[in-house]
Amino acid sequence: MPGEASGYSILDVSHLNLDESTALFTISMILIFADIVLFVLFFSSMLLNCKVYDYEGNQIIIYAGWCHHYIKVNGEKYDEHNTIATFTPIKLNCKLDDGTVLDATISLSNRISLKINDRLYK
User: Fold this and answer.
1) How far apart are the C-alpha atoms of 94 and 71, rounded to whole Å?
2) 30-81: per-residue pLDDT in tens?
3) Separation of alpha carbons 90 and 84, rounded Å
4) Strand ranges, E, within the chain
5) Sign of the CA dihedral 77, 82, 85, 87?
6) How many C-beta atoms lie closer than 10 Å to residue 53's C-beta?
7) Distance separating alpha carbons of residues 44 and 2, to the nearest angstrom
8) What is the pLDDT of residue 110?
9) What torsion do the CA atoms of 22, 26, 31, 32 make, to the nearest 10 degrees?
10) 55, 76, 80, 117 — which has fewest CB within 10 A?
């Protein structure tokens, strides 16, 4: 019958041993890749930032994570920004009950600055 094999044989693959140089090269490539991944994770964890401010009895929390950023006042989230990547600083703002305006800026390296009524607050 056409297309059918008339027989088969098992190949001897014992001569295909993995020599030491190939094994060392493979192990070194795996270690280099693991080092790069660990360095990226370490460096990106250095970019996480959270600041807590106390302004006239109000607790203000500004969180800048990898892709999640928010501002909370007295435990209530007022503004948030979710992004994978951004090429401009992130602006978060809210207004307190007494009319005080909070403007938070998160830079590209996740540094946080807070302005209260257009004045920098430290």
Assistant:
1) 8
2) 999 999 999 988 887 777 899 999 999 999 999 998 889 999 999 999 999 9
3) 12
4) 49-55, 58-64, 68-73, 76-82, 90-95, 101-106, 112-116, 119-121
5) negative
6) 17
7) 61
8) 85
9) 90
10) 76
